[in-house]
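Last lecture ended with a question: if I hand you only a sequence, what can you say about the shape of the protein? Today we answer it with a concrete record. The protein is Coenzyme F420-reducing hydrogenase alpha subunit. Below, first the input exactly as provided, then the predicted structure, then a couple of comments.
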Amino acid sequence: MNTQADPLLLHAHRQGSQLTHIDIRNQRPRAAALLAGRSPAEAAALVPRLFALCAQAQQSAARLACAAALGQPTPGEDEAAALERCLAAEAAQEHLWRLLLDWPPLLGFDARRNRYAELHRRLARPLSAEEAYALGGDLLDLVARELLAGFFTRLREPRNLGEFVDRAEAGGGLGSVLGALVRSGTAGAPASGAVALLPRRSAAGWLDALGGLPDEDWCLQPIDHGAAAETGPLARNAGSPLVRLLLEQGHRISARLLAKVIDVADCASRLRQPLAAGVPELADAASPAPGVGLAWVETARGLLLHGVRLDGEGRIADYRVCAPTEWNFHPAGSFASEGSGWPAPDSGIAQKRLNALALALDPCVAYRVILDDADPTEDAATGAGHA
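The predicted structure:
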C-alpha cells in the first residue's frame, strides 16, 4: 500500500469490536507559500494552477482578498452577478461528480457516467446569462425528475423515516442510493455530541473573530470559538425539514447526502437569478488595514478562506489559505468524532460506514480510509480530487 500518494490519511483504530479513535494525517502541500514575493496579479493568475480543484473559487477568493488589501472598490452588480453564476456552476459540477459517479457504486448501483459527462461539458465552459438561465432550469429538472423524483410526486412531505425511505426509493436514481444508505443503519452523533456547524459570517465578521488574518497553525487546524466545526452542505442546509428529519433520526451521513442535492437546486436557482434578494451571498471580502485583505467563498465542500498581507512595494509578504478539508478533517472534527466510539464487530460493515462518512464530508484532496484489522477482501476507500 503506497500511502505517500495520498495527502489525507484517515486511519481508524479498533480495539476488540470497538472503534476507539481516528488518526488523521493531512500531508497536503502548503502551496500558499509559493505566492510570497509575487504581485497580486501574478498571485491571482497562479492560484488556479496551485489549487486545481475548485479553481474558480480559489481564483475568486485570491482576487477578492488582493483587491481588498489594495483598497479597490467591490465588484459592481454585473460583475458580481457573473461571479455568482461562475461559482454556482462550479459548485454544481463538483456536487454532481459525487452524486452521479461516486455515491451510486458505494451503495451497489451503477455510476451515471454519460449523464455526468453531458452536464460537465455544459457547466465547465463560460456561460452567458441566457445560457446560465437555461442550464439552471435543466438542473432543477434533474433534481425533480432524476435525483429525488419520489419527493416531488406527493403533496406533503414525509412525516417519518419510513415514508422518507419509501419516497426516496420510489423515485429511482439517487433516491434509491439515499434509501439504501438510510436502510444501512444510523450513523448519529457520538455520545459527546455532534461537532458544531460553522455559522455564516461576513468577511469583516471573520476578521473580528480571528483578530485579524489567521496564522498558519490556525489554517492547518481551524477552530471556531475554541472548537472544531463542520462546514459544507450540512451546515448550509441543516434547517431544511427533510435534512432535519434525518438528523433527528440519527442518519447524519444520509443528511449530508441529501444536503448536497439541495445545494444543486440552490446552484440552479443562482444560475437563473444571481444576487436574488434574501439569498446568502457566495463570496465576501474585507480589509482591516491598508495592505491587508481577507476573502471567503462558499464552495461545494464549504468555506474557503484566503488572507493576504502586502509589503511596502505592493507585493505579497504573507498569504494564507484555509480550505473546507481542514475544517471537516480536523483531528477533533466531524470525521474523527463520528468515525469512532461505536461498536464494529463486522469489519466489512465498519469499513463501508467509514467510507460513506469520508465521501459525505468530501475531502478536496486524494485520501485513503484505513481500518485496523479490516477484512483483506474489503478494500480501503480511496478518493481523489479532480481538476
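Comments.
1. The mean pLDDT is 92.
2. Residues 3-383 form a domain with the Cytochrome-c3 Hydrogenase; chain B fold (CATH 1.10.645.10).
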